[in-house]
Write a sequence for this structure.
């Protein structure tokens, strides 16, 4: 069986033309055309013996084939039905790769993992469609099914995921990701590596999932505080929390902040995860 080079533009264009395929902007279709990119992403993902990899949006399969060479099993979820006949052709040499037609946001991921990855360590690796980056990452982290999530996304979002307290990129999404995972910004991927070219630079991040931080005792209150702090990030933390109705009594809020060792005029964007956790504890403590 002939294996196509799925990143060679001279092979991709006739393949797509033969199947009458047209790119869909709304599905975030930017296909890789530089073979070092899927190779390095697959390598960074930790896919190997004993692993089962969920890929979201295989396109014509350049990353899928790299993953199938490394992992025991690959399950690739693709929403665009027009890509299914192409994938049937390009993945034919890889019997350990299964294509699952559908929308990743609507799938029963637990059922998928038990059906496809029994006895294996489940992980995620993908060149994500840009339009669903934040909701799909939230879903993948909150479901608690995967040991790691390695994805290519817009560089701007990658920087937010890995940001440090006090930086302009630090926000509620940073804290959500860092609550569930150790985050690493691995490498940039220039626009020229895609067909068609996106408007922005991309980057690869690895989120290695972890036990929830021991310092967070009330997860719901912790995330309420975080959301309130960043909803009004230009205001002081005290005003932002008060506006969000976190306590009917602003003085009680101020006292809780003081007990947590926070200056009265601090902004939420300066607080580490541990400081948000401590403040949640102080807000709950009997006054
Ligand atoms: N993996 C391929 C590559 O690197 O060349 C294609 C990546 S392209 C950025 C994103 C892919 O995700 C497309 O194939 C698109 O059809 C698919 N897609 C978009 N929304 C999806 C969804 N909700 N669920 C599953 N796949 C989706």
């Amino acid at each position: 069986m002939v294996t196509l080079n799925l990143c060679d533009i001279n092979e991709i264009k006739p393949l797509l033309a033969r199947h009458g395929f047209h790119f869909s902007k709304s599905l975030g279709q930017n296909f890789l055309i530089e073979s070092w990119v899927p190779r390095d992403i697959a390598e960074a993902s930790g896919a190997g013996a004993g692993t089962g990899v969920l890929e979201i949006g295989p396109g014509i399969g350049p990353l899928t084939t790299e993953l199938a060479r490394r992992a025991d099993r690959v399950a690739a979820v693709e929403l665009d039905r027009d890509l299914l006949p192409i994938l049937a052709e390009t993945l034919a040499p890889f019997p350990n790769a299964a294509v699952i037609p559908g929308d990743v946001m609507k799938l029963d991921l637990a059922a998928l993992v038990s059906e496809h990855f029994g006895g294996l360590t489940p992980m995620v690796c993908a060149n994500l469609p840009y339009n669903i980056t934040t909701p799909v990452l939230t879903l993948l982290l909150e479901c608690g099914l995967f040991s790691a999530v390695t994805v290519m996304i817009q560089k701007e979002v990658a920087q937010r995921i890995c940001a440090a307290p006090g930086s302009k990129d630090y926000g509620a999404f940073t804290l959500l990701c860092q609550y569930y995972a150790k985050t690493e910004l691995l490498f940039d991927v220039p626009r020229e590596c895609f067909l068609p070219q996106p408007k922005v630079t991309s980057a690869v991040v690895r989120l290695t999932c972890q036990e929830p931080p021991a310092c967070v005792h009330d997860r719901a209150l912790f995330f309420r505080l975080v959301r309130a702090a960043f909803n009004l990030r230009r205001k002081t933390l005290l005003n932002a929390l008060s506006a969000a109705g976190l306590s009917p009594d602003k003085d009680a809020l101020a006292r809780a902040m003081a007990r947590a060792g926070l200056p009265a005029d601090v902004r939420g964007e300066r607080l580490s995860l541990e400081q948000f956790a401590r403040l949640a504890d102080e807000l709950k403590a009997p006054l």
Notes: The first helix runs from residue 9 to 18. DSSP finds twelve helices and nine strands in the chain. Residues 27-32, 56-59, 62-63, 77-80, 83, 103-105, 127, 129, 132 surround S-adenosylmethionine (CB under 6 Å).
